[in-house]
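Quick start: load a record and inspect it. Here is Putative 4-hydroxy-4-methyl-2-oxoglutarate aldolase:
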Amino acid sequence: MAFFTADICDEHSDKANVLGPGYQNYGGAEKCRGEIITIKLDRNNSDLITLLRDEDGSGKVVVVDVDAAYYAVVGENLMKFAHQNHYSGIVINGYVRDTLQIADIPVALFALGTCSRKYIPVTTGERGAVLNFGGVEFRPGAYLYADRDGVIVCPQQVD
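Running the structure step on this input writes:
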C-alpha cells in the first residue's frame, strides 16, 4: 500500500479527519485502507464474529465502538476470520487480546490497548450506526486510512 496518512492530511486537509491519540496497531499489517463498515457493540463481540466470519471484507475496514469498555472484543480467532475474508483492518474504540498470536496475522488492528478478559453474556450490536469517538465521526461508506502515524477518515477515497 503506497500511501501515507501524513501525505493525505497535507494534500486533503479539508477532507481528512484525524483520530485522537492513544490508538496502537496490534495486527500484522502495518497499514490499512478501505471503505468503512461500522458496528456498535455492548461489550460482547458475537455480532462482530458473525460479520468477520460470514461477509466478504475486500476493500473494507471495520470500525467498532464499545465505548472503551474494558473487555477485549478482538483476539486471535476474530483476526483469523478477518484475514480469511480479506478485511484490510479493524479499528476499535476498545481493547484486544491474544497479541502474541495476532502479530503475525496480516490485518491491521488499531485499538486503545489490551485486556485479557472478554464479555461472555451475549448482547446485541448495531450494524451501520454512525459512530463518534476520538474526535472523529465514522460513517458507513466513508474511507479510512491508517499507518504508523495514525488513523484518518475522509468522506470518500482520496488516493
